[in-house]
Amino acid sequence: MLSAVGLGTKGDKRPTELSGGEQQRVAIARALVTNPALIIADEPTGNLDSKTTSEVVDQFVQVNKQFGTTILVVTHNPDIAERTQHVISIRDGLVEKEQYLQRLDSYSLG
Length: 110
Description:
This protein is of the alpha+beta class. 33% of the residues lie in helices and 21% in strands. It contains 3 helices and 4 strands.
């Protein structure tokens, strides 16, 4: 699973030997490894560059398609939101807009 988030060569490293972004990717891999029914991800790519963000979102999409895992992502990144099936926009604690999208296979971050 570490390879899936770009850390295949870092399996022997201690957390203090990893950057903040690498530590975040380890957390994502740990969440994915047990194939849970639901993953709640609060800003899962907040400290990642755009290439790694795209890879992480690709992994989420793959997990959803392969295992039927529901993934709830809280993000400020509209590119991530566009890759989901259902977007609920919240402003000041209230639902501002709700959209159902069918773009999972055709979009990539960039």
